[in-house]
């Protein structure tokens, strides 16, 4: 289904982020598989979309490819209002998800299991968990703060705060 056909079948309210069926006026709901099912009565086919991608496509009238990703700027996937949606590529999306994972507890400093004078710093980078053994707690804390700052900058580049 292309963007023109979707605009014929659906209404999108850019302020509230609600998508409704034109004929019945009922809102589209996210199913258990985290997708929205859109039925085309003429072709008698059902197409599945992520709600964010569907809203972006309806808003801008563009067909999105599999490589395109729609990011919710406030990181709330249920908020599909127009000012909250942003189109990024796969690499940028991976960078945002990795930064969010690190900020939410991926960066952690733990004591070394055998050497009581060393510490292990864990974080995620390029899809894998990295570990570095550091012998001084001051240096370890400083490196942890640098990593937190680095990933915070990535998030603030793409996302906004939810004040």
What spatial form do the alpha-carbon principal axes imply? elongated
Over all CA atoms, what is the radius of gyration? 21 Å
Element-by-element helix/strand order: HEEEEHEEHEEEH
Strand-residue proportion: 25-35%
Low-pLDDT windows of residues: none
| Sheet with the most strands: spatial strand order | 7-8-9
Distance between the termini: 37 Å
Question: What's the pLDDT, averaged over the residues?
Answer: 91
Strand count, sense and closure of the main sheet? 3 strands, antiparallel
Report the helical percentage. 25-40%
User: Tally the helices: what do you get?
Assistant: 4
What structural class do helix, strand and pairing data support? alpha+beta
The total beta strand count reads: 9
List keywords for this structure.
alpha+beta; 4 helices; 163 residues
Explained architecture:
34% of the residues lie in helices and 26% in strands. By secondary structure, it is an alpha+beta fold. Strands 7-8-9 form a three-stranded antiparallel beta sheet. A hairpin with a 7-residue loop joins strand 7 (108-111) and strand 8 (119-125). Helix 3 packs across helix 4.
Write the layout of secondary structure elements.
Elements: H1 3-9, E1 10-12, E2 19-21, E3 36-40, E4 45-49, H2 51-60, E5 69-72, E6 85-88, H3 90-106, E7 108-111, E8 119-125, E9 128-134, H4 137-158
Helix pairs in contact: 3-4
Short description:
The chain is α+β, with helices and mostly antiparallel strands and 163 residues long.
């Amino acid at each position: 289904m292309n963007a023109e056909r979707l605009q014929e079948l659906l209404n999108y309210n850019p302020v509230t982020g609600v998508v409704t069926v034109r004929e019945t006026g009922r809102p589209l709901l996210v199913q258990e598989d985290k997708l929205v099912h859109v039925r085309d009565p003429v072709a008698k086919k059902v197409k599945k979309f992520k709600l964010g991608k569907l809203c972006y496509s309806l808003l801008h009238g563009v067909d999105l490819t599999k490589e395109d990703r729609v990011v919710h700027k406030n990181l709330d996937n249920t908020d599909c209002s127009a000012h909250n949606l942003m189109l990024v590529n796969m690499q940028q999306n991976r960078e945002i998800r990795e930064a969010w994972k690190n900020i939410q507890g991926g960066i952690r400093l733990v004591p070394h299991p055998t050497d009581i004078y060393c510490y292990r710093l864990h974080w995620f980078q390029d899809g894998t968990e990295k570990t570095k053994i550091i012998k001084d707690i001051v240096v370890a804390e400083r490196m942890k703060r640098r990593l937190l700052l680095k990933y915070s900058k990535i998030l603030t580049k793409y996302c906004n705060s939810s004040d």
